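Entry 14. Ran structure prediction on the chain below.
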Amino acid sequence: MLDHVLLSRRHAFAVAGVCVLLSTGGLVAGTAGEPGGTGAPPGGLAPPVEELVAKALAASPSLAARRARLDAAQLAVRAADVPADPMVEFEYRDGGFPRWTIGSDPMSMIGASVRQPLLTKARKSARRASAEADVDVRRAEAGQSAADLATAVRTAYAELYAVDRERAILNDSEEIARLLAETAMTRYTAGATDQASVLRAQVEQTRVSQRGIDLEARRTALVVSVNRLLNELPDTPLGEVRSLPAPPPLADSLARLPDLAAAHAADVSARQADVSAAARRVDLARAELQPNFTVGGGLYWQSGIDRLVSVTFGVEWPVRKSRKQLPLLAASERELEAARRDLDDAAAGMRAEAAGLVAEIARDDRQIEQYRSALLPQSAATFDAVRASYLTGSGDFSSVLDEFRRWTEARVELVGLEAGRFALQSRLAAFVNPPALTDSADVASRNLPSPKESR
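Output, structure tokens:
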């Protein structure tokens, strides 16, 4: 009789533990994104995602390289329209060579001359415009790299959120699985169930624990990837991500975002800069069809106080124009056509990708609402119902485990949807509102130490 009383008390304690976990700790419907569980990574909470984005933009070596190339292009503009250096020539003429006849022969003299190639106004303007267009290309490439980097950081942050929230959910689920195993053992000891129920509960508890091990490895890999984006050492710790911020603001309604992406995405801006640079190169090739001019002068000494001065003016003789300048002009025109085609393709691609993102975000919004308003409450109620039936002897333990899995998976799926929607919104925002490169980020990148030096 005493043994029966003790078993009943153990059974009541296990049931009470399950009920407490079902009613507290963020396990009710609609709280999948709230703090819960006890398995938080070391290091406290992770910094806000925008802080990580700013750090990545300031510390990225690849972006620093883009900025250095931009600086180089800006410096090259200064020399674009500068004429060629003058040529200085020294001359000795002797009409009776090898006899020294300077002073006795009027054709004999010693002197020096200077020759300066000239640039026409059209050629100077075309060269400077082409160099400035190259600056725009480098700036657009840096902007594209910055947009890609910011999107990569936000996407990795969303994945970390999904992993950390799933870890918290599994910690709670593992505790419930342990209490279910104890309940099954208590009922088996009391002769109210079979041994198979105990084994199923133990297998479920092991399965949840094994899934937690997989998440640990996945989180480690994600932290390494984030540290790579931040130019940190791979083993730099990163705290737990418990919530996601509001997505970056969009410039207009969802219906107009595809057209905005086709006009303002960083990839499209880079292709537009390519078109402009190609057009400037065509103008430069046409300017090169004009003849080149040179001016010069010389001063010669004959003997005593006799001096001879010469002034020269030269015009290029374009005997090879058909084999040199004209083919180069035709090549530049074909490059311009190719750049325009690339721009059309990039704009069409951005429009289609943005339209797809809009559709996926709308789908995720509907699914998240359905999970929060219906699926999670229904899963929790079903699990509670089958658990109660099992405890009263009218249900089987397999149904309890099945509903326990469905309830756990529903919470994990909701977290995945929240993370996926944030990643999609971040990509779409990067298309419409590419990140700006700040001066402080420029200064930091130009004096960027290596990860080991920074430590």
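Confidence is low (pLDDT under 50) at residues 1-40, 438-455. Will compare against last week's run tomorrow.
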